[in-house]
């Protein structure tokens, strides 16, 4: 942060700059420094709190994606799916959402209507109710048509304890499908790029998939959705939260050919590209096969794969075995290769 005394786009990218901003500015300001140090890398996308005898998951998220509409999605359904997925990643059943719109003066009502309709439809698909909200308008030139904030509440079943810190050596790392589609879909639309095959966003609610995984009875240790910063950021967050290493087989990570080709042309790493309908699960080796089978039987996990293991070596680091037999370190991205992606 000493190298960047002002906010830059990288602070919103979900990588090292975002982590520094939270750890060194927000956490000390919001609570005592000792608590901020204790939480460290264990801070997740949703908090689980006790309320009236129930375990309640609570999360909030803001969406500033540009453009508002992209192949297979828009800022409206993205806002619902992103918040529902944050709740699902702690094992919660999403129940209620609040939504707030920040609108730029001059935005067309027809365009806003399309966003609102997509948001409402996505909530119905995910099985959550929109119960409250807010609207604000800013001067023309002081926004980007539509920003959306969503806050979600869900209930965590008894016996479910999911967090990065629960990962254990020899656990198996699973990913629910092909990575990188959302980021490339938004980029192609933003920059007017055309590829041989249209890349469509993977945005989807994952609460149904998570419920099916929990129904197996497996002791799922960790769940995360690899959004900003992609799979690279998520694996690093898990490794640092657990203070263990993660070893990945690069060829085992599913990447659609169109996404791989686009990344090759543009000089991007699929591991660092955002996803909005994928999850990473860390499960005991004894449970891995049945959890993987259930994931593949679900529409949102049909391309699921086992991609690596948790190790005691290289604590806090992610190392990939390449297709050529060598190894490379998968670092936590500094900022974001593709800003304004969610």
From TrEMBL:
<comment type="similarity">
    <text>Belongs to the HypE family.</text>
</comment>
<dbReference type="Pfam" id="PF00586">
    <property type="entry name" value="AIRS"/>
</dbReference>
<protein>
    <submittedName>
        <fullName>Hydrogenase expression/formation protein HypE</fullName>
    </submittedName>
</protein>
<dbReference type="InterPro" id="IPR036676">
    <property type="entry name" value="PurM-like_C_sf"/>
</dbReference>
<dbReference type="InterPro" id="IPR016188">
    <property type="entry name" value="PurM-like_N"/>
</dbReference>
<dbReference type="InterPro" id="IPR010918">
    <property type="entry name" value="PurM-like_C_dom"/>
</dbReference>
<dbReference type="Pfam" id="PF02769">
    <property type="entry name" value="AIRS_C"/>
</dbReference>
<dbReference type="InterPro" id="IPR011854">
    <property type="entry name" value="HypE"/>
</dbReference>
<feature type="domain" description="PurM-like N-terminal">
    <location>
        <begin position="45"/>
        <end position="156"/>
    </location>
</feature>
<feature type="domain" description="PurM-like C-terminal">
    <location>
        <begin position="169"/>
        <end position="315"/>
    </location>
</feature>
<dbReference type="GO" id="GO:0051604">
    <property type="term" value="P:protein maturation"/>
</dbReference>
<dbReference type="InterPro" id="IPR036921">
    <property type="entry name" value="PurM-like_N_sf"/>
</dbReference>
